[in-house]
Write a structure and sequence with these properties.
The complex is a heterodimer.
Chain A (H helix, E strand, L loop, with lengths): L1 E5 L1 H11 L4 E4 L6 H13 L5 E4 L3 H14 L4 E4 L1 H6 L1 H6 L8 E6 L13 H4 L7 E4 L3 H16 L7 E6 L8 E5 L2 H7 L17 E2 L6 H33 L6 E4 L6 E4 L4 H14 L4 E6 L1 E3 L3 H7 L5 E6 L9 H10 L8 E6 L9 H16 L7 E2 L3 H26 L1
Parallel strand pairs in A: 2-3, 4-5, 5-7, 6-7, 11-12, 11-14, 14-15, 15-16
Antiparallel strand pairs in A: 1-8, 6-13, 10-12
Helix pairs in contact in A: 1-2, 1-7, 7-9, 8-9
Chain B lengths: L30 H13 L3 E5 L18 E4 L5 H17 L10 E7 H7 L1 H9 L4 E7 L36 H7 L4 E6 L3 H13 L3 E7 L3 H5 L5 H10 L5 E5 L4 E6 L8 H4 L15 H18 L1
Helix pairs in contact in B: 1-6, 3-4
Classes of the chains: A alpha/beta, B alpha/beta.
């Protein structure tokens, strides 16, 4: 095992390299591109025996990924944001083929307005696709999760593609110390891909992805995929235990931090959770009993593990780095749905939208969210949803608008004179 | 093509029994299916058909398939990318010694004109750019036939469609998919028709022998979309060739020449072809639309004048 300083993107590429992927259909998009460039250079140098093909769109890239996996090779691919949405038809198509492979998504906010910086509205748009989802907070977690994702998705009881998600910029371009496992340890954990009967061979003709007529056969196959995804929770725990044994790092489905005696807990995913973790420590020093619950899996949804982690917590401050227009945060909605009617569930789930398009969340905001959630729980109510935005941010935006307005006025004045 | 290169010298050389099973959901008298029968016979079952959304998608409907070989349905826009994934995976398996050479497959895209000349054109062009080793079979029924014959990029000028119901019919001119492919510099491009089986069989045979991107663009007279009796399908196919409306030709990168493989002289007036189809009835009833008829004939004459 060697320790290196690598970016989140490089960690993803290392995961693919150690998994000995055979095939990498690719398409460039910021902030993901570094991943495919790293893989390409390793293939050229001979340190990775794989074929990388640059497609003309993410829609084609995902089609090629699924088709190659259906032919029986181990496939890795990566995208981001608009690219993920461009591929969305295939994202919903491929899980039904029951072809396991790994798609790394480097989260980035969606247009409009156009941005390069991160939030999770992109990956949550794939929520109902049938892809399993692992959400990472650190570069180490990215590398390890790619390896876990192959073993998990290729499990004969699962056989589904997996999205491994990391945040653009905050994680993709940030160097962190990462332990790179030895190939031998990885090979022991992750055997070669066995495609089973799902592969194209002259001696073994198959018809894949055919049409059905009527709701009966359609429902049958949709239910099968759903049941495989739901059952994948157990398979995940087994894979995570095997990984801990092989590489001595533990990645449970739900990461709970200082929750044992917590009155209030933050609930969020992704790299913002590292700031939340820091906030938990600082607020604890100030005497607040605060914890943090970070689901690593969103599909399948680890409802029981989340409920266990929140047992005894009075209030949850759910921080959604996504926005479902006209409804609010996806994590909040799903958490409410998972906890409703459960014994011992927290009294109050307070909803906060924050961190959109790379906007940071300050320590004072964490403190305020914890305070608001706890106060509401003590009063037996649920506070209204809050969209995090400071007076200072609004002043700066107004200033920009005023400058642009003045420029336009002065240009109009010049052309009139 | 010289006859010495082909096993198909006369009609009796064509297969007498078909590899493709019957009882599918295709319409009676489907010209595309007629062509596919022969294409599949010549290609053989060591084939994986990668399909784009269209009429032929219903050939394989769970749990039945008429194909002895393999099949993969993808989506409307990306069948060539599916072919890329399958071909690349087979090559990787061969290179790494994880598959026997006898298990290799011919990768064939099967798509209609709607996908081929519209939504799938970007994926097709890019597959040619990459030099993908695949055969692309486009059955051209000149519209979105599966959904009731709305106009596609290959709908002929003046044809009535489900959304062009006025006296002028469709206003656009048929997109030249053959020329688009040639401009993209693949290995081989051919147009053919199920109504000319010997010519079709030779082209499939040649395409199967070559490597790289190859197109087989086949005429697919459509009884339901064009408005004629299913039993008239072969005759409609013949008339398209005899009037010069559907030229039979091929192009190879090595020679860089378009060769017409079957030329009817003199050509029949295009009216002979048009008047047999409901989609052109408005050109004859209630009164003859001489302007539009002349425009269509002039388009065909101009093509053949330029062809020399």
């Amino acid at each position: 095992m060697s320790r290196r300083l690598v970016t989140g993107n490089a960690a993803a590429a290392w995961g693919a390299r150690l998994a000995r992927v055979d095939y990498v259909p690719a398409f460039p998009i910021t902030p993901q591109t570094e991943i495919i460039e790293a893989l390409s250079s390793w293939i050229e140098a001979g340190s990775l025996d794989a074929r990388l093909v640059l497609l003309e769109s993410e829609h084609s890239m995902l089609t090629a990924a699924g088709a190659a996996a259906a032919t029986g090779v181990r496939v890795f691919t990566a995208t981001s944001s608009q690219g993920l949405l461009h591929a969305m038809e295939m994202l919903f198509t491929l899980p039904g083929w029951r072809v396991p492979f790994v798609l790394v998504n480097v989260s980035r906010g969606l247009a409009s307005p156009l941005t390069l910086e991160p939030d999770h509205t992109d990956v949550l748009a794939a929520r109902d696709s049938g892809f399993l989802q692992i959400h990472c907070a650190t570069s180490q977690e990215v590398l390890d999760s790619v390896l876990l994702a192959y073993r998990w998705g290729e499990d004969p009881r699962v056989r589904l593609p997996v999205i491994v998600n990391l945040d653009g910029f905050h994680l993709s371009f940030t160097r962190e110390p990462v332990m790179i496992p030895e190939s031998e340890a990885v090979d022991g954990f992750l055997p070669a891909f066995d495609p089973g009967a799902v592969r194209f061979r002259a001696s073994h003709p198959v018809s894949q992805a055919v049409a059905v007529l009527g709701g009966g056969p359609y429902s049958y196959f949709r239910y099968e995929t759903h049941l495989a995804a739901e059952g994948a929770l157990g398979a995940y725990d087994e894979a995570a235990a095997a990984f801990a044994h092989a590489c001595a790092r533990s990645w449970p489905a739900v990461d709970a931090y200082r929750c044992e005696d917590a009155e209030v807990a933050f609930f969020l995913i992704g790299s913002l959770a590292t700031r939340a973790r820091d906030a938990v420590d600082r607020l604890r020093e100030a005497g607040m009993r605060v914890g943090l619950v970070r689901p690593r899996l969103l599909r399948p949804y680890p409802a029981a593990a989340i409920a266990r982690a929140l047992q005894g917590v009075a209030a949850v401050a759910v921080i959604d780095q996504n926005l479902s227009m006209g409804m609010g945060g996806v994590l909040h909605t799903e958490l409410a749905s998972a906890l409703y009617g459960q014994d011992g569930a927290p009294r109050t789930l307070a909803s906060f939208i924050g961190g959109l398009g790379g906007r940071s969340v300050a320590l004072e905001e964490f403190r305020e969210m914890a305070r608001v959630a706890l106060a509401a729980a003590r009063e037996g109510r649920t506070p209204p949803r809050r969209l995090l935005y400071t007076a200072q941010e609004l002043r700066e935006l107004r200033k920009l608008q005023a400058i642009a307005h003045d420029e336009r006025s002065s240009l109009a004045g010049e052309s009139a004179s | 093509m010289s006859t010495s290169e082909t096993q198909f010298r006369r009609m009796s050389d064509l297969p007498s029994t078909h590899l493709l099973g019957g009882g599918t959901a295709m319409c009676a008298g489907c010209g595309g299916l007629q062509a596919l029968q022969l294409i599949y016979d010549v290609l053989g079952e060591k084939t994986v058909l990668v399909n784009a959304a269209g009429c032929m998608t219903l050939l394989s409907t769970y749990p039945f398939t008429p194909f002895r070989g393999s099949w993969l349905y993808t989506a409307m826009a990306s069948a060539p990318a599916g072919a890329q994934g399958v071909r690349d995976a087979l090559d990787v398996l061969l290179a790494k010694g994880r598959m026997e050479a006898e298990d290799d497959l011919r990768v064939v895209v099967l798509a209609g004109d709607g996908s081929s000349a519209g939504m799938g054109l970007s994926a097709t062009s890019a597959a040619i750019d990459r030099g993908l080793d695949f055969l692309y079979v486009c059955y051209d029924n000149e519209g979105y036939a599966n959904t009731g014959q709305q106009p596609s990029a290959t709908t002929p000028h003046g044809a009535r469609t489900a959304t062009d119901v006025g006296a002028a019919g469709a206003r656009g001119w048929k997109k030249d998919l053959f020329a688009l492919w040639v401009a993209n510099r693949p290995t081989y491009v051919a147009s053919a028709s199920g109504a000319e089986p010997l010519d079709l069989a030779r082209k499939v045979e040649k395409a199967a022998r070559l490597r790289g991107p190859r197109l087989l663009l086949v005429h697919a007279p459509c009884p339901t979309g064009w408005g004629f009796e299913p039993s008239e399908m072969p005759e409609i196919g013949h008339l398209a060739v005899a009037t010069g409306a559907w030229p039979l030709k091929e192009w190879e990168r090595t020679t860089n020449r378009v060769v017409h493989t079957k030329v009817r002289r003199p050509r029949l007036p295009v009216e002979e072809y048009l008047r047999r189809q409901d989609r052109f009835r408005h050109l004859f009833e209630p009164a003859r639309n001489e302007t539009l008829l002349a425009e269509i004939q002039a388009g065909i004459d101009a093509y053949w004048d330029a062809a020399g």
